Amino acid sequence: PMKTVAVLGGGIGGLAASFYLCKNPQVAKVIVLESSSRFGGWLWSLRRSDGAVFELGPRGIRPAGAVGTNTLNMVEDLGLEGDILPVSYNHVASKNRYLYVNGQLHKLPSGISGILKTVPPFSRPLLFSLLTEILVKKGREEDESIHSFVSRRLGKEVRGPELLFSRQHQSETLCGGRNEQGGGLHPVQQQQL
Fold first, then answer.
1. 25-60 pLDDT, tens per residue?
2. Distance (Å, whole) CA 73 – CA 20
3. Which among 169, 170, 150 has a CA at the least distance from the CA of 160?
4. Confidence of residue 73 (pLDDT cuts 50, 70, 90)
């Protein structure tokens, strides 16, 4: 018998799962249940009235290994190849990364020399965190959250509240999820694929 499958959550994981379920010949219908007013989860864009677009979620994919190959295959299946903008490792966008902390933009260190010295907003050289990395035990969860991973591996300073929250700028948090004004649950929406 043909199956109807409900997918909880319309974020990138739920949408990808729905995509593959739709390819399954035993599935007649896929229903995506999303509690917010839009699909995409962490993937979202802010379009300003002057035409500027700010990507407030993940902006890139790293096409490495089996997961990367699978992602690129899905991009091709969806006909989105023309929307991919390749960025090489030596491109300025790959070299310049920033954190917005306490109202200031901080350039993250790049290269070996950058991790040897203390740079704001950090209170110690990043090399220290990298060296202690080999002593940190693997997490107990098979699918660990970014918040847990960063806390366990790099310390609470790196994932601390000053790096996580910037409500007035509607920015996405580093490790804890997007801040949304209004809060509360929204009616569940259904999207049949």
1. 999 999 999 998 989 888 888 888 998 888 777 777
2. 12
3. 150
4. very high
| Dihedral over alpha carbons 147, 72, 44, 100 (to 10 degrees) | 50
Using CA of residue 146, residue 151, residue 152, residue 157, what is the dihedral sign? positive
Distance CA 126, CA 56 (A): 25
CA 87 – CA 96 distance, rounded (Å): 12
74: its two tokens: 């899905």
Instruction: Output DSSP code: residue 119.
Output: -
DSSP state, residue 57: S
pLDDT band at 139 (very low <50, low <70, confident <90, very high): low
Angle of helix 65-77 relative to helix 12-23, nearest 10 degrees?
A: 70
Distance CA 109, CA 119 (A): 8
Tokens of 25: 């010949």
| pLDDT tens by residue, 106-133 | 888 877 788 888 887 777 787 877 777 6
Cα–Cα dist 124/51, whole Å:
40
* CA gap 169, 50 in Å, rounded: 17
Angle between helices 146-154 and 126-133 (to 10 degrees): 100
C-alpha 120/C-alpha 114 separation (Å) is: 11
